[in-house]
Give the backbone structure.
Amino acid sequence: MEITDLTPAERRVWDAFPLGEGVDFRESEDEDPEQGAAWGPERTLRAEVLRELLLRGPVREGRIAGLKVWGARITGVLHLMYGTVGHPVRLRACHFDEAPNLYGASIPALVLTDSVLPGLTAGTLRVDGVLRITCCRIAGPVRLAGAKISGAVFANQARLGRPDRVCEEPVLHLSHAEVGADVLAVGLDAHGEVRLKGTTVGGQVNLDDAVLRNPGGTALDAETLSVGTDLRGMRLRTHGRCNLRGARIPHQLNLAYARLSHPDGVALRASSGVIGELWLREAAPIEGSVNLRRAQVELLHVPPEVWPQRVQTDGLGYRVLAPHLPAEQRLPLLEREADGYLPYPYEQLTTAYRTVGDDAAARTVQLAKLRRHRRTLPPYARLWGWLQDAAVGYGFRPMRAAGWLLLLLCTGTLAFALHHPPALKPSEAPAFNPLFYTLDLLLPIIDFGQEGAYAPVGWYQWLSYLLIVTGWVLATTIAAGVSRSLSRQ
C-alpha cells in the first residue's frame, strides 16, 4: 500500500505510530462506541492500513513505537493471523465493523478497552504483556482457546453475547489457555457459556459481581481449571450449570452471596476437585442439585439453608466445617443424598466433629447413621436394631439401659412386695426380699438365692418371665452396643 493512499485520519495515526503517541478521535469522553457505525471518514480507519502499520510500519530511533487510538471506526477485518507484531496495540473505545482475526499471532500487548466488536478470533494468541477487553461489548464469540498470555487478562464489566440471540459456541472461549497472572472479570455480563476448561492461571480468577446466563446449559465451564491462588465469585449469579469438575484451587473458592440457578440439572459441580476452602456464606439457596463427589476440601463453609434438596456427596472429604453447628442441623443434608443411604458421608461428618473435639456431635451422627441404615435391612434385622436403639441407642446412649433397668426393677419390686410368691421349700428358703428377687430375675449373671427359692403363680409368673426375657435382651444389647462403640474409638 502506498502512503499516498492514506486518508487524513489514517495519516494522523501513521505519523503518531513511530513516536508511540496516541490519536484521540473522540468528540467527548462519554460518547458511545455503539453508535460507531455512523461515524464519518474523519474518524474511520481501514483494517488493512492498521495491519500494514503493525507489521511493516515506520520506527524512529530512540522512540518506542506503538498503535494507540481512541474513538475510531475500523472497517474491514484486522487480519493478523500468524503475524508477529513487535509493538503494543491499544484500540480503546473503537467500533469494529468486523471481528478481528488474530489467530496464532504474537503481540506484546493488546488493549481493546471500551470498544465494540462483533466478535474476536484469537485462538493460540501469544501476548507478552496484558490482554484487556475491559468494558467491551462483543456480540459474538471471543475465541481465545489455547492462548498464552504472560500477563493478566482483564474483562471487567465486559458484555459478551446478546440477550436476543443464542450463541451456539461459548461467548468466551479461554479453554486450555495459559495466563501468567490473573483473569479479572469483575462485573462480567455474559449471555452464553464462559469456558475456562483446562486453563492454567498463575494468579486468581475473579468473577465477583458477574452475571453468567445460559439457561438450560452450562453458564461456566471451568473443568480441570488450575489457578495459583483463588477463584472468586462473590455475588456471582449463574443461570445454568457451574462446572468446576477436577478444578485445582489451592486457596479459596469464594462464592459468598452468590446465586446459583439450574433448576432442571446440576447447579454446582465440583466433583474430583481439590479446593483449599469452599465458601458459600450468605449465598442464596441453590436452585438445582450439587455434585461434590470425590472432592477434597480443607474447609467447607456452607450454611445448611444454602444446600438444595438433592446433593451428591459420596467421597467428599473435608477437615473442618463452618460455621460450627449442632449435628442435628447438619444431618438433614445427608438425607438428601441422591443415591440414598451411603455410609461414607456419615463417617466424614463424624470425623469433622471429632477434629474440632465435639465428641457428643460425633456420637449423634453415628447414631443417625445406624438408624438410617436400619431402614435398609429386612424386617427381622430392623426389629433387632430397634431393640438396640431403644435399649442403649446402639451403644451411644448407655444410660438409657440404666433407665430401663430401674423402671423394671421398681415395677417388679412393687409387684412382688404386694404379693409374695410361695416358697418351693419353706423350711429351707431364705427370707423373701422383693428387691433382690427382682434383681435375680433381671440380671442373668447374678444370683442372690431368691429366684431358685420362690415360684410365683398366676400373672406374677408371667411377670417373672417378662423380667427374665427383658433382662437377657438388655444384657445382650448392652454388650453389642458397647462393643460397637468401643470398636470405633
Notes: The longest strand covers residues 211-221. The two ends are 84 Å apart (CA to CA).
